[in-house]
Amino acid sequence: MDIKQKFGLKIKELRKLRGLSQEKLANLAEIDRTYLPTIEKGERNVSIEIIERLAIALGVKIKDLFDE
């Protein structure tokens, strides 16, 4: 499993723990709703700006998105 897949699984895990739909998280992070599923599947090499938006939307620190 590569880093993109690990990152995507972490986003999905945190999203589900918070009871958020993909659409709701995308709205909170101000990203396109069709972009989030590709992140969660590990298909995207996301920018640090998107990582920051996701961390804020999920209420975690950026480093928490990389913890296993």
TrEMBL record:
* CDD domains, sorted: HTH_XRE (cd00093)
Would the keyword DNA-binding turn up in this protein's UniProt record? yes
> So which domain of life are we looking at?
Bacteria
Keyword Flavoprotein assigned: no
Keyword list (alphabetical) reads: DNA-binding, Transcription, Transcription regulation
Q: Which GO terms describe its molecular function?
A: DNA binding; DNA-binding transcription factor activity
A Gene Ontology cellular component where this protein is annotated is: cytosol
Q: Which Pfam families match?
A: HTH_3
HTH cro/C1-type domain: which residues?
11-65
The record, for InterPro entries, names: Cro/C1-type_HTH, Lambda_DNA-bd_dom_sf, TransReg_Diox_bact_type
SUPFAM superfamilies xrefs:
lambda repressor-like DNA-binding domains
Q: What is this protein called?
A: DNA-binding XRE family transcriptional regulator
- From which organism does this entry originate? Flavobacterium endophyticum
From which lineage does this chain's organism come?
A: Bacteria, Pseudomonadati, Bacteroidota, Flavobacteriia, Flavobacteriales
